[in-house]
Amino acid sequence: MTPDAESPATVLLRKLDAGDSSAAGELFAIVYEELRRLAGKWTARSAPTTLPPTAIVHEAYVRLVQVEGLRAESRSHFFRLAAKAMRSVLVDRARARAFRRRSGDSDAEVPELGAPDPAYEVIRTDELLGQLASCDPGTAQIVEMRLFGGLTNEEIAEATGVTTRTVERSFQAARAWMNATLDAESEAGSG
Hints:
Layout: H1 8-17, H2 22-45, H3 53-67, H4 75-102, H5 118-135, H6 137-147, H7 153-160, H8 164-190
């Protein structure tokens, strides 16, 4: 990532914030490949029933610019917002898939017996991030950018203004907490 002060994306974000609607198209052209790469990291980790990276990027971008009104101060802030929008897209789609299955939709994708349910995994991860955000919003933001935005530790450090080591430690602690929570739920469910 280039430093925000030099970034063409930052310049376009300022124009967009000032009311120049033509900047939205220019911004999309600049950030599209990077957003697609980030979304691709998510789809590579998840099951094939997840949206393709292109669909995630387009839907997230629409939410960022057209629905919520993009108010990003810099390139790194934009990518924090993009991670949040991608999370929202993925969670909404996972909830819709889970609802279709529960309502008996014969076209709904049903995981094979014993296979992990990608919809449940996305929804549960979102719930755990919500719990984490209530007690440690900074760490929750780091996890969100890493899991849903696909950002590297270096990119997250730049976006949040902390050191790479802090990002690494925070992510490791959050992952340990999330795994312990899921293990405890698993034991309680089987007992």
